[in-house]
Amino acid sequence: MDCDTIWDNARLVTLAGDTNPLDIVERGLVAATAGRILYAGPRDDAPELSASRTIDCEDRLMTPGLIDCHTHLVYAGSRAVEWEKRLAGASYEDIARAGGGIVSTMNATRAASEAELMAQSRLRLDALIAEGVTTVEIKSGYGLELATERRMLQVARSLGEACGVNVSTTFLGAHAVPPEYAGRADDYIDLVINEMLPQLAAEGLVDAVDAFCEGIGFTPDQTERVFAAARQLGLPVKLHAEQLSNLHGAALAARHNALSADHLEHLDAEGIAAMASSGAVATLLPGAFYFTRETRLPPVAALREAGVPIAIATDCNPGTSPLTSLLLAMNMAATLFRLTVDECLTGTTRNAALALGVPDVGTLAPGRWADLAVWNVSEPAELVYRMGSNPLHARYRRGH
Ligand code: DI6
Ligand code: FE
Question: Which atom of ligand 1 lies closest to the CA of 321?
């Protein structure tokens, strides 16, 4: 069988099986053509192959390219000074209610040109890529009006092309109420669902729709209206839910067959049951938990018991999680949330792909994109154990 590239002598973490969570192949080989995997399995069982390029992985560990399934990495400015106030005792909510928080990043992002947004955001994406990330979800939500929401989504698409990353864009117009709609949240939701979302969807800029269902965000009823508009446009939904309180957002998301419900520190048994029956992914965001010094843990044991797939992401954003390391996010998920190594690696590959509704990535299996990460380690635990060092040896996206 002719193929473009063979990666030989690798310990494959395929995540392609249904029995052993990581489904490791000891002396493995991957073959790819036109960017897609032809074979991934024991080198001794491989078909006769003739490749134009052979890469000897010298017994290194190979995983699918990592997937960061929840980021707000396109934005301008910084919230470091606001963070100093939080260190001195002000709460995230106090600052948001005083006009800081998301709205202060909104002001900086509205003022930034496309080139400035691109330059500032690329630094964050490059940091993720350096750790073997090949797929990233990028949300809007710092424009809160059509022109800047459009610019954010255009920059997200351009970053994918410029940096060789698969980008899933998510419209998060329902992130906060902009000052010009202060006290008129329902009117702002009218703008989001009747003008912004249809227009941006028609321009091909939207892969999914999200909302911030929270006391300082939007109510379940307002969230419901956003989801109904997404459904009318045939777009999948996901939700920031139960981050600071329990508004039963996860159950609402499950009722709308959401791809995922995210944060979930205040998730209850009703929400877990709803997610288990709908198949929604629980995307945990340990960076936000850590950075806001949250004390209430998401109900990991109950999610595990109920069979809800768990994903892990950086939630890279200037307010609650200025984190651009998915490896550190895995370490936090294990250390703070007590996830296992297997759950952490599954959560940034196979389950992260489920959370984005992108079937072509996240496992080493025939037909998937040849998005691969080769590591200078032999044990999967090494990828979760370290804090701050980067063991990536090589990254391939669609075979290159
Ligand atoms: N929850 C979060 O943690 C981020 N957005 C959201 O809905 C915070 C975004 C910010 O503070 O800039
Ligand atoms: Fe978020």
Answer: 3
Strand 2-13 and strand 24-33: pairing?
Answer: antiparallel
Q: Are strands 133-139 and 36-42 parallel, antiparallel or unpaired?
A: unpaired
Q: What is the CA(104)–ligand 1 centre distance, in A?
A: 12
For 288, the 3-state DSSP assignment is helix
Q: How confident is the model at residue 392 (pLDDT cuts 50, 70, 90)?
A: very high
Phi, psi values for residue 341, rounded to 5°: -60, -45
User: What pLDDT, in 10s, does the model give residues 154-181?
Assistant: 999 999 999 999 999 999 999 999 999 9
Q: Which residues line ligand 1 (CB under 6 A)?
A: 101-102, 105, 175, 212, 217, 240, 243, 288, 317-320
What crossing angle do the helices spanning 146-163 and 102-111 adopt, rounded to 10°? 80
- SS3 for 64-102, per residue? ECEEECCCCCCCCCCCHHHHHHHHCCCCHHHHHHCCCCH
Evaluate if pTM is beyond 0.85.
Answer: yes
> Ligand nearest 144 Cα, by number?
1
Instruction: Give the pLDDT band of residue 250 (cuts 50, 70, 90).
Output: very high
| Sign of the torsion angle spanned by Cα atoms 340, 341, 343, 348 | positive
289 DSSP 8-state letter: H
